[in-house]
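Q: Structure for this?
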Amino acid sequence: MQLNRDDLIQAYRTMATIRRFEERVQDEFSKGAIPGFVHLYAGQEASAVGVCSHLGDGDVIASTHRGHGHSIAKGCDVTGMMLELFGRQGGLCGGKGGSMHIADLDRGMLGANGIVGGGPPLVVGAALTAKTLGRKTVAVAFTGDGASNQGTTFEALNLAVVLQLPAIFVFENNQYGEGTGAAYAVGSRDIAGRARGFGLPAVKVDGDDFFAVHEAAREAIERARAGGGPSALEVETCRFYGHHSGDAQLYRAKDETRRLREEHDCLKHFRRRVQEAGLLDPPELDTADADVAALIERAIAAAQAAPPPDPAALMTDVYLSY
Amino acid sequence: MQLNRDDLIQAYRTMATIRRFEERVQDEFSKGAIPGFVHLYAGQEASAVGVCSHLGDGDVIASTHRGHGHSIAKGCDVTGMMLELFGRQGGLCGGKGGSMHIADLDRGMLGANGIVGGGPPLVVGAALTAKTLGRKTVAVAFTGDGASNQGTTFEALNLAVVLQLPAIFVFENNQYGEGTGAAYAVGSRDIAGRARGFGLPAVKVDGDDFFAVHEAAREAIERARAGGGPSALEVETCRFYGHHSGDAQLYRAKDETRRLREEHDCLKHFRRRVQEAGLLDPPELDTADADVAALIERAIAAAQAAPPPDPAALMTDVYLSY
Amino acid sequence: MPMKTIRQALNEALAQEMRRDPRVVVIGEDVAGGAGTPGQRDAYGGVLGVTKGLIGEFGPERVIDTPITESAIMGAAAGAAATGLRPVAELMFSDFFGVCFDQIYNQAAKFRYMFGGKATTPLVIRTMIGAGRSAAAQHSQSPYHVFTSVPGLKCVIPSNAYDAKGLLIQAIRDDDPVIFCEHKLMYDLRAEVPDEAYTIPFGEANVVRDGEDVTIVALARMVHYAAEAAEALAKEGIDCELIDPRTTSPLDTDTILDSVARTGRLVVVDEGTPRCGVAADIAALVAEHAFAALRAPIRRVTAPHTPVPFAPSLEKLYIPSVGSIAQAVHDTYGYGR
Amino acid sequence: MPMKTIRQALNEALAQEMRRDPRVVVIGEDVAGGAGTPGQRDAYGGVLGVTKGLIGEFGPERVIDTPITESAIMGAAAGAAATGLRPVAELMFSDFFGVCFDQIYNQAAKFRYMFGGKATTPLVIRTMIGAGRSAAAQHSQSPYHVFTSVPGLKCVIPSNAYDAKGLLIQAIRDDDPVIFCEHKLMYDLRAEVPDEAYTIPFGEANVVRDGEDVTIVALARMVHYAAEAAEALAKEGIDCELIDPRTTSPLDTDTILDSVARTGRLVVVDEGTPRCGVAADIAALVAEHAFAALRAPIRRVTAPHTPVPFAPSLEKLYIPSVGSIAQAVHDTYGYGR
Ligand SMILES: Cc1ncc(C[n+]2csc(CCOP(=O)(O)OP(=O)(O)O)c2C)c(N)n1
Ligand SMILES: Cc1ncc(C[n+]2csc(CCOP(=O)(O)OP(=O)(O)O)c2C)c(N)n1
Ligand SMILES: [Mg+2]
Ligand SMILES: [Mg+2]
């Protein structure tokens, strides 16, 4: 573990930001303040933060429909995101993208994606840019157990291997694709193993454990930066909410989410670990929680206060020139 | 080897028919008598025949752009095929399909295919029909090393495993996809191994050796018929001609095709094996050759003599009713 | 007659056809839901509940949940249709056609022609269209112009529960591949729907309203907007004929041309984008075959040439409105008077 | 000026732009050929030789051979374009759009809008269109109507070597995603082509021939057929104006509308299928915006609503001919006289 105190507090703060963001989005969505669909990332924070803490603005990620966590971990402005979710002027995408299309190219965030399996090929491209221009940056595809069955994902794995690109494929296995179990949809029942068959190193890692994710990601990312080619990570994780906000979750065991929150909460796990190791004190963590809560409330207040986009925005930004 | 004399002579005759068909198509194409593109199967005969000799009309195959061999092995009428290649009335598809779309549903031949990776998903469907209607039939996708990298192919493997369908995926690895080597395009350099990662049994087999293919196919097909689910076969084979008729083949080693014809000719290999084992005599095989040659000449003569399709055929068979 | 929602009408059509014909199977992502989970099967019944309950009656062999694998779903359905089943495959959102269209347009739709008339491919693809739910750029499109353009494919776009049931049963019994477009905002719309099975033939438009002044052709949800506009215009003394083609391929050209022959004026309303859209197709038809009768420019009321925006305020501007339809009718009606 | 084929013109455009800008890369199947083989690199140079020789000058890092993996190619090109390269990706046959269209229409084309104007995606997709080579149903299509319909995508369809070079350089320098359609039967067509680099702006039609009686709008190979028809018709005293839009998105609507304002008669010639095609799109444009000038029905001369047949005898009937174009002009010209 090569994390110093600042790194640790930063990692915790980012995970807590995601958690709080999602919990408050859930409230606001339930109240009808957020239009459309939202897919909440709560429970999976260690994956986004464990991976992204190795990345700079020049590194690129592509995300999924469940993109808030990756966006925050990659440095997207939380207020800009909240404005976007509310569909308001000043949103990160001007209110034109919404939850499923959060993006910020300046932060290396190449977009949430409404198409399952849409991101991995894009990441091959970002990695190609890095390699071709000799940038020493890497590109990371966050993707799911469901998306692991999509042809585009398989093609991306193969092409990344063929071109030996600095690409990392993170399969966040939260056991479900909508209401279908990974145990059914992944024929091999082993996402990492199937990825390994494509000729790239692939490891499974416990997504409750920020430190395990962080370490596995470090290895993959360092290898990629050094020209060692692509890797895959299967992060075993869980989502605390339904597929989308409002999902009745009939496919889950009774009590499952309560149990997950108790036994598989990566934030609790992190607190326990750093306290046991004497690295951070509860008050420091509590202060971070309080800061984060205030930040999110400010973001929501800003979103509530912001006007809708200028009607003229309907017709702009289809092309650069036309 | 559970093949009796009749089986053997039949297998040889079918392989010889394919070989002769392709050689004469090459001549006729070079003379300009055959329009469009043709992709010749010569050199790969043991694969089509080794597999299809286990199949009846109720079993279904889907083929590729290089479909003549599979069509003949599956029992398509050779004269009908030749008429089709010439674009004439009476062709197997009425002259509307051509070499790349040879099909005969009555023989369980679900079509050559102009789309690389087009066949495997269709085979999943044919296998689904078999399973749903309790037919005890199987479905076989013939596909290539190049096609093994296509997303549709990967998806078909996974879905066949998930639904435990009686589907067999035959990867004919002739080392090239157009002018690109399998050693480059298959990131893992191991098609069978990659398939195995999808959770189905997959073996590599020597495509020079009819008996090896026959045996591996028997095992896979019997398993499928018995409800044991899908399998994959990687047949290591070679094509004697270019990607298509007229290809300059600059991607090949000098002398490569001569060497392949000498050392890796599955027909020669078959003759040697049956003679050494005292199963068939040279005269019997020569008679088969002569019969086959006459058959193909008759097919060509018929094709040359046939009129073009009725102009009205342009507008028919778009729909059953409209 | 009992009132039913479009969702109920579609569900009933599926159940009745599955009962009638054991070759009919449903296949897609979460068409039941719950496979391989600790929870219950039929956890979804389709993301908007259209296939709910079918697995209970017909079992997992005929209500087939799949991984997220649209190419394999469409290919499997095509291959199954060509070999003896009558699959109803679900493409959850029509926006996803880009990951699987080959199996639809190059395979299923072309089998019969390429194979010289020897293949029969009784395949139905159910899919969702439409904006209005803030589902943003990749979940709100109406790409039926692409489907309509494909020789060998039929394209159905119902606008009410009665039509939805009859057209879906027709689609299932039809021996050609059919893509069946359901507007995601209309599932709760009610109409009188008979309990027994019935079919509505393809290529027969529904004349929703007779009129003598202006012909309006509208699709899917736009039929309702156009009806509202026509109602309002009638009060001003403009008498609109409203035609719902119901199927864009085959298209009932006669009904449209006959109407324009009487009215001399045409407005086409289509939620899809304008370039090479169905509105353009119908406008071109009329400009070619009813030219003599035309007394005013053909007006198209469509979405703009932009992706679908997320913000509700922008999305509202994106979708044709009752007001914009009425305005187009006014323009047309006033032309040359 | 030197005479060059379209193939040479395209190759030269690529080479010059790659020299000028190190961010320009070519990616696709067998764009060089020979990777991982015992033979030579550049064994293909693209299946019809357009990219031949580039790998020699620019190396395998900028002339990138791929497996058969169109979704990954298009996605990689889109992702690379959004992060700093200017890729020219090859979709060997446009017929293959069905296996990869998501990355084109839902990703590349929508980035800028979905991301609120913050993405720039300078991507070019080169692809082959057209029938006439007995390549049958899956290798002969012209689905540019689908490409034209996509907001955020530009669509270019050159008809001669001069335009091909200027338009391809424009496409590469353009900051929006562009799909560039090359007709497979036209690569050997020669014209005068300057050696130096030049651009032709998008959205500016080429008026191939001035005329006063009938406006013909034709695309790609049909421009040549239409020119031949116009030549013959001129001898009969029918004076056709022939417009080649060159780009269908953006479309030079002014040139078309101005021409029809003068001639009052329009024939659109398009090798694509008729339903929701570019011919319909242009017909609808004119029926809406040049109605007052129209003196005859708008005639479309297109392929029929069928897949492309294999047999040369049928394929010849499938493709619009000089004769069918002349006939349509006659009909239009004679109408109302
Ligand atoms: C191509 C495509 N198919 C289907 C969907 C509908 N859909 C959205 S999310 C989802 C499940 C994704 O599962 P997974 O990859 O495991 O991600 P998770 O939701 O668990 O984060 C599905 C089926 C889609 N958006 N795109
Ligand atoms: C989707 C698609 N991409 C590309 C092509 C062009 N193409 C035709 S055959 C071929 C090579 C196929 O290689 P392989 O699968 O190894 O089969 P082989 O030709 O060796 O029999 C290619 C690239 C195609 N027809 N379809
Ligand atoms: Mg999941
Ligand atoms: Mg091969």
